[in-house]
Amino acid sequence: MPEHVILFTGPMGAGKTTAIRTISEIDVVSTEAGNTDRAAADKPTTTVALDYGEILLSDEEKVRLYGIPGQRRFEFMWRILRERAVGMVLLVDNTAPDPIADALEYLEAFEELLDRGGVVVGITRMDGAQDPSVLDFSRALLAARPGITVPVFAMDPRLIGDVRLALLSLIANIDMRAAFGRAEVPTP
Amino acid sequence: VTAPHKDPAVIERGRAALRELKDVCRSLVYATLLTDDGFEIVSLPADGRDDSRLASMASSIQALADAVARELRIGDSEFVIIASDSGHIIQRRVPGEPIVLAALFDDDETLGKALSISRLTTEKMSAHLAATTPHTE
Fold first, then answer.
1. Among A30, A34, A48, beta carbon nearest to B60
2. Confidence at residue B32, expressed as pLDDT on a 0 to 100 scale
3. Residue A187 resides in a domain
4. Distances from the Cα of B34 to the Cα of A53, A87, A153, B99, angstroms
5. Predicted ipTM?
6. Which among A3, A6, A158, B91 is placed 20 to 30 Å from A172, CA to CA?
């Protein structure tokens, strides 16, 4: 059975665990611990190793979903998980002080996935902050990686339709790259 | 409420616990106390190694062990052992606290003694902290 390993990445509190729990068809394996760093994200728990879930795209195609710990101090887990992945859903909290900088930071940290598979960006909490817009993100990502298409979505990680749309777009992008090479857009 | 790694009383109690561990177990090479979410509280010896990185790794290992125990429905994980050619690492929770002990013993130590001493250390620290002010968030 063909399998895709997809990472959910992004800063602490962006909605990675929620998104995997929303879409997974199995009980999610979580590694949450009490959060003692409320200044970084005001939530009671935080992922310290990984989240794991699965969905079947068809009888013949499984997607393994791994959520990373968002904090930089768990970077060693990023490397472990990155080695197996073919793509990532990068989630960014739009109410953070500089969400575009957050997106670019994680895009750089997982840059090899741009070449190996694909990346989509999901902007969360847009109900709390309209700016920057989806278009602003798209422009910033294109400026940072000219010629590489990175689809950007507004996403509520609690809504299965939102998460599924981003994930299926990523899978389609990965499959297209596998068939035709890197998806490119004309540089201005 | 102060997080354990920022609480001077917890840090001092932790330092004392690690010293006592070293006093009764000369084969102890290195030990660190960390929060469940991977912040170093105190380490022994403080010899310049990247203690914060080790604390993060120990936190992940502990959480993965807990996840496996949950998955297999075998109750809470009691301790974690990483055995190697030149020693063994033992990780244990401090009972009732969001704190983990990770201790490296050289290969002069029997695994049984290392497990026993690490258990006594965590239980003693738990009893001491329970008798003082709660400090977790």
1. A48
2. 95
3. no
4. 28, 32, 38, 6
5. 0.83
6. A158
